[in-house]
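Progress narrative, work stream C.
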Amino acid sequence: MRSRTSVDLFRYWNTLRGDRNLPRRDEISPGDIRLLLPDVFILQRQVSGPIRFRLAGTRICTLFGSELRDQPFSALWEEKEMTDLDRVAGRVMAQCTPMLVSAFGRTAAGDEIELELLLAPLASADGRNDRVLGTLSPLTCPRWLHLTPITALATSGLSVLHRDHDMSRKDVNTPPAAANIGIEAGHARGRVLNLRVLDGGRRD
């Protein structure tokens, strides 16, 4: 992980779940993560239709220049990746497996910014694993950030995270060449890349 926001939310999520596969939505205390809230979102699987935002923090909405509540998660991505990213979010829920997505955000003018998304499974109050707790964090701060909206995201890497993932901050906010973010070398960005499973393992 390269974002402190990702690291802090993953630690919080991992503490909440304890020995379980995932925590419940009603166990989250906003006061415990108040500094993270502007970059936090929750997705929910609908009975029919796409996976949608249940809520999205203010900085995330500002990044895209619009309120994201009730919008499809897939709508954030380039058209050729919409189906793939909907499946990624669905897999996080179905397999109770957190994932880390590296991406590039693009503006209408062609400006780009690196971002990191953490997707962690979350249950409803009745125990159904139908939600995702996540963060979306810019890794750089260009002058146009929060002034010019991002029009679409394109993936550059995808990693599966496990409970025993090394949570040291030695790679947080380091340059791309030095950071271990699960990007397979030699692949073009703009599509979901090969998965890289980080050390650890699911505990049933």
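Work stream C, second folded protein:
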Amino acid sequence: MQSIAHALNSHHREKQEYCPDHGQYTAIYTWLGDRWVGGGCPHCLDAKRQRQRREDMEQRRQQRTQTMIRLAGIPGRYQDASFEAFDAEADAAVRVREACRRYAETFPERLQNGTNLILSGGVGTGKTHLGCAIARYVIAAHQRQARYATVSDAVRQVRRTYDRTSEQTEQDVFDWLAGLPLLVLDEVGAQTGSEHERMVLFEIFNRRYSDMRPTVVISNLGCQDLTQILGERVIDRLLEDGTALAFTWASYRSGKR
């Protein structure tokens, strides 16, 4: 036993060293191969390990964010949509932008309460931009999956399940759409108004309402016209503890012609 202890001790040395940041400390050196290694300040080494852990966590967070944004279905035109990039010239536009920002910043509370948001107004007023900015913020800041889709997208996904070669069922699609932490549904009211489309919309809104999942609804129609399209029951559920924001200013697109 003494020979083993002697062999171990002969490969380790302790020496008093000085660290400019932490002062005097006992350095431990180990004989490795043909030289002594180690001897670093334990406080500095611990700080380095913590810094590396933080960097690794941040890298994993960025990778998760990139993956979720890639799966979010955000159109190419709005891949970089943000609140800062929103061109708010009118006072009303500033108020709407800040309301959307608050919705995104407080999303964990919205998710807990199932709070919805309706963005309605004329074409070219920035509704889709702000809807995508909300989705991107929710993903990046809160690490929650968000999905942008038009009504046509949702209807097509459901219809694909009717093909005999489809690996998904209609129920699978509705489960997925209902389960997303945030769904940004665009072009509501622009559809043809068929019975099947109304059924798809009702199922989506009804399931998300029951599961308390927030939905951002984007439409060129006002609330009164939306009520005629979706029905009072759906509108009441969307606005239960929810907010409707009206985009009342002129189209940005017409001003750039």
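The longest helix spans residues 42-70. No further action is required on this item.
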